[in-house]
Amino acid sequence: MSKNAISAELPQRDDPSYESRLVAAVIAGDTEAYGTLIEPYQDRLYHALRGILGSHEDARDVVQDALVQAYRKLNSFRAESRFYTWLYRIAMNLALSTRRRKRPTLSIEQAREQAGSEPAAQWVGPEELAMRQEQIDQLWTALDQLPHQTREILVLRELEGCDYETIGEILKLPLGTVRSRLFRARSQLRVQLQNVLSDGSV
Amino acid sequence: MNHDDSKPRDDRLEEPGDHDPQLDELLSAYVDGELTGPELAKVELRLQQDTNAREWVAEVQQLSRLMQSLPRKSPGPELRSQILRQVAQEQALSTGNPLASPGSSSASEPPSTLRRWLWPGLAIAAALLLMFLQSNQPEVDRRVAGRSEEREAKIEERGARSEEGELMIANKPAAKIIPLPTSGELVDSLQLAEDSAPLAKGQAKVVPRGRPSSPASPASDLPVAGQYSSPNVAKPLSMGRSRHFAKSKSTSVRSTKSDFVVQVIVSDPLLDGGAFRTLLTEHGMKPLEGVRLSSLPQEHSLEDEKEVLERLETRDRSAPALPGEQVDTVVVETLPKQFHRLLRAYRGNPTLQGRYGIQEAKVQQKLSISGNQQETAPIPIRITFELRRAVPSESIQKAMSDRTTE
Predict the structure, then answer these.
(1) Element spanning B317, H or E
(2) Three-class DSSP category at A95
């Protein structure tokens, strides 16, 4: 099983000082540099937040707020942590606040709406496609019913592909806690999605 | 997979016997490839012996695949530009250095030779802006019909005035302050341009009207007055706010960031865009990108400025711009509060005390949504300063000289 570390997915930034140079430029007043700095992260941050918050609107708002807040706090960013994890920590805190303000419950229709239409692979027939969409709908619904903490760690692992160390950095958790939380999160999701798993079609 | 539906499912593995909870957690870490050495060996041994563990791992792997296959959507192409615009605004509202800690001073201290000419220019700029804002109608309502959103804007100004006098810096005349006409003589109405085809919805334009045929003020024939006296030079004014502010159950109302655009013409030959920009930066108003700035020519000197000043004191200010007269455009985006802070700082300048009479100015907007939700929030105003000055070159000096002798 390959380790799906986030660092392997980062865009080509071979120079280790690339990001820190961008950060310095932003602090010096170069807003364009900030655009370059956040460019690799905004889409994936949105995808992760959509997984946590469930709604396109909320995810978009939190991405925007997080990136603006990160700009404000950039002076407090320390080079010893990665910009990615620092940014995600801000975003996760905002997502938690947003979710506390309103706790939506997704209907199947809403889940389908937010899941969007999946691009149909050529080898997938209409029946399989419909079945697959059904699974995705159920997954969204199940995710929505999980506690925020559970959903958050699942998203970081499964949607973001973060390794345990990165998850620990973002959520400020020791590795042992990351392990136990992920185990519990998966166990809960597994219970909720028994019918999907029973199909054996995933 | 073979599941017995009657069998209760739990967070714990359904494993008979004395299984270790930590061993369960290792299974999850195993799925993620996070195990090495003895821990990996321990799990692999268990998987050989434990059917439930094998089943748990297989199902969790299925769930991982399912989650990873969730379609990725884009947040929309405009998100990035919205963020950067907001960041630029943050920077504009900060104190010089966009990320400077409170209390830290701006690194860009203007040269003393420039600084000494800043205040006269600002005096005129501020007076003209306030003149523009001041209205015979204290409240101007704007309503934008459309969708579920109704916007209402209110502008209030009071007590803005200027006094005649001479600006003295170091006991030397630096600029002449000429009483300005009340803005009511120039512009007394701001209207949304709903019926104006060239302007997009949500924009507005300044509609000058009601200018008296015989200006009450002797200075109402300033070039700046002329800028607003003709409908042909009506300036677009867009309104809105930067962040979404209301959501209904079914749909969210998000208005894009837009702003007031106020154009101020400053006819001051001594005010250079770079110096003015520095002044604005000191007050947390960083000019936006795309600012057109012309800098003082290389041969410029303080003596040149003084000479120009002396000549200008006799120049007919109502005359159109001189050939070669330079116009610097500085656009700032700021909150009304920030702008007022600058005005207060200006008023607090001991050199100018008693010589310039801004009392108070207030710009406020009120937004109402759907008639039942109401929220008042400051809206960024975008101010375009046009700073006119004569380049003290021989040709300009000659042109000015010719004009004053006519």
Answers:
(1) none
(2) helix
Q: How far is A15 from chain B (nearest CA, A)?
A: 24
Distance CA A202, CA A134 (A): 11
- In angstroms, the CA A193 to CA B14 distance is 16
Any idea what the Cα angle at residue B157 is, between residues B200 and B134, rounded to 5°? 70
The beta-carbon contacts of A85-90 under 8 Å, at least 24 apart in sequence, are A85/A166, A85/A169, A85/A170, A87/A38, A87/A41, A87/A45, A88/A45, A88/A48, A88/A156, A88/A160, A88/A170, A89/A169, A89/A170, A89/A171, A89/A172, A90/A66
Whole-angstrom Cα distance, residue A202 to residue A132?
8
- Choose among A146, A170, A145, A136: nearest CA to A156: A170
B69-123 pLDDT, tens digit per residue, is: 887 777 777 788 888 877 777 776 664 444 433 333 333 333 333 333 344 444 4
- Sign (positive or negative) of CA dihedral A34, A38, A42, A45: negative
Whether complex ipTM tops 0.90: no
Cβ under 8 Å to B: A residues 82-141: 115-119, 135-136, 139
Q: Which of B181, B173, B179 is nearest to B357 (CA)?
A: B179
Per-residue pLDDT, A99: 72
Q: For residue B76, what is the enclosing H or E element?
A: none
Closest CA to B390 of B313, B319, B312: B312
Helix or strand holding residue B177 (H, E): strand B172-177
First vs last Cα of chain B: how many Å apart? 102
A window 34-93, beta carbon within 8 A of B: 34-35, 38-39, 42-43, 46-47, 50-51, 56-57, 59-61, 63-64, 67-68, 71-72, 74-75
Look-up: residue for tokens 């509202």?
Answer: B93
